[in-house]
Amino acid sequence: MLAAVLKDFDKLVLEEVPTPEPGMNEVVVRVRACGFCATDYKAIKGIRRNVTFPFIAGHEPAGVVAKVGIGVSNVKEGDEVICQPSGYCGLCMHCRAGNTHYCTHAFTTGGDGPTDVRPGAFAEYMKTDAKCLLPKPASLSFDAAALTEPLSGAWKGVIQYSEMKVGDDVVILGVGGIGLLCLLVAKAAGAGHLIAVDPSAHAREHALRLGATAAVDPGEGRTKERIYRILPHGPDLVVEAAGPIEAVRLMADLRRRGTRWNVFGITTHETFKLDGGLTHFLEARMDASFGTTPLAMQKAIRLMERGLVDPEAIVTHRFPLAEIHNAVVVMGRPDRNKVIVNP
Question: Residue 312 falls within a domain, yes or no?
């Protein structure tokens, strides 16, 4: 099969590799679409270094079951499926509590986080555990279905963890792909004011088209002052979906009494300061969210199937696998949002 194999940082090679064979309780999926996540780009460019070579990235896939292993009963050849990249045992204390993304024996297909990293979906075929497959509704395109995992993360952070309520005034810091999905979830959940903050004019314009009620450029300075002109009483919820530590510091500065704030986008180990007494008296509640769970995946599928969120609205570029290098170039440009690879 054709696969995009990362041999070293900034050395991505298209080559023929053996097509995987399923083992016990495993399934091989013919990949039809895979989202290109910023973490994939960071691995390819060496921005994140926790990569073991050779590595096949791509952890947002949807496709068709090509072959099933012994013991698989939940899917059969020809089924259209959505793949959850984070594998789990189902038996450890975390899994039994519903926190499968904490699994003691976790693995990821083409992603980041666990030490057990398996080949991902920037390839014609991908192998995974049968538990990681969910049925793709016939009404969903493969491109939309491929965005189930990032959409599920947005639902998990905004709704499950930060408990957004109808009418809440919400600020999204960073409206790239994941920030836009957070925005779409917040809009579907009935946000009042919905403010997008991003230095990219392209991203801000896209956010306004998708339902943001206002957009703020932090590069112009006085960001808190400008947000508080729109929200004199301050935000009910702030979601940091940007990544840089400066966004986390801004989020902490935006708090008023009772604000909920979610450290969602940053993955680097950087620090920020909090005034202990102020934090005590504000009673602002901090959450954080990473990864996904079967519950979040199911919720994301329902949002799409019911027409409440259209994730394809954030897609700006599509590339066949043979043009993966062009996709990498576009991932580094400011005038893109979500990129899809179609093997």
Answer: yes
The per-residue pLDDT for range 99-108, each reduced to its tens digit, is 999 999 999 9
Single out the residue in 288, 307, 328 at which a domain terminates: 288
Give how many domains the chain has, as a whole number: 2
Q: What is the CATH number of the domain that holds 275?
A: 3.40.50.720
Integer Cα distance of 318 and 36 in angstroms: 10
What SS3 state is found at 310? coil
CA-to-CA separations, 48 to 43, 52, 113, 288, in angstroms, rounded:
5, 11, 11, 20
Tokens found for residue 323: 């043009």
Give the number of other Cβ atoms within 10 Å of residue 118's Cβ.
20
Q: How far is CA 276 from CA 119, 257, 281, 334, in A?
A: 44, 14, 9, 37
Regarding whether 302 and 271 lie in a shared domain, the answer is: no
Enclosing domain of residue 233: 163-288
Confidence at residue 267, expressed as pLDDT on a 0 to 100 scale: 85
Rounded Cα gap, residues 105 and 282, in angstroms: 39
Q: pLDDT at residue 268 above 90?
A: no
Backbone φ, ψ for residue 157 (5° rounding): -70, -50
**Distance between alpha carbon 74 and the CA centroid of its chain, in Å?**
26
* 223, 247 Cβ separation under 8 angstroms: no
Q: Are both 54 and 128 inside the same structural domain?
A: yes
CA 88 to CA 91: how far, in whole Å? 8
Name the DSSP class of 131.
G
Q: For the chain, what is the mean pLDDT?
A: 97
What is the per-residue pLDDT for 260?
98
Residue 321 tokens read as: 């696998």
158 falls within a domain: no
Distance CA 152, CA 144 (A): 12
Triad 89, 90, 94: Cα angle to 5°: 100
Q: Which residue has the tokens 């030490």?
A: 115
Q: Let me know: does 163 contact 191? Beta carbons within 8 Å.
A: no
